[in-house]
Design brief:
mainly beta, four-stranded antiparallel β-sheet, 0% helix, globular
Length: 180
């Protein structure tokens, strides 16, 4: 579970609860100036992939992140094992999804300086990207003229034929994760 600060607070945290044991925990770093916008289970739930948006904290000037990150959280060790910047210079990544085993698909808004500007009134360009889970390398980047991710975490829907659908900004796109 992820937490993003609201109102005049900044950043967020990654928090978890084991319903069987009621044990809980939290990871605040590196989320003091990054808010988690989307999470997805990877490798059958052994890993959690997440994306963030930058959330500068006025109490800590000079520590503001320049870019949003994609991270992998190991459920067993309760630690972030890898992280990357999938879209250089992008401050807002809104969605991440396991397109198929070993492959993530995500959405970012490179032209938006804060997630608050990506609300329902925003109709700007969205970048769709694919990432290899093992290396965290971006394998494909597609810049679209559509606003596909105006709401954090709400983007991808599985279809019965193995494709993935994404909608927004008057567009409905079908993605074949096999062919990227």
């Amino acid at each position: 579970m992820a937490s993003s600060a609201s109102r005049w607070y900044r950043g967020g945290a990654l928090i978890w609860l084991d319903p069987k044991t009621s044990e809980s925990g939290a990871l605040r770093a590196p989320f003091r100036s990054l808010a988690v916008s989307s999470l997805t289970a990877v490798q059958g739930g052994q890993l959690i992939a997440g994306v963030t948006w930058t959330s500068p904290d006025p109490l800590f000037p000079g520590e503001d992140p320049d870019e949003a990150i994609l991270f992998l959280f190991d459920v067993a060790t309760q630690a972030i094992t890898q992280q990357c910047v999938p879209l250089a210079g992008c401050k807002v990544l809104t969605s991440i999804y396991e397109a198929m085993p070993g492959k993530l698909v995500g959405l970012g808004m490179p032209a938006v300086p804060t997630l608050h500007e990506a609300d329902d009134s925003y109709y700007g360009d969205t970048t769709l990207f694919f990432v290899d889970v093992e290396t965290l390398e971006v394998t494909t980047r597609i810049d679209t003229p559509y606003s596909l991710c105006r709401r954090a975490g709400r983007a991808f829907v599985d279809a019965h034929d193995g494709s993935i659908w994404v909608s927004g900004g008057g567009a409905l796109l079908q993605i074949d994760p096999e062919s990227e």
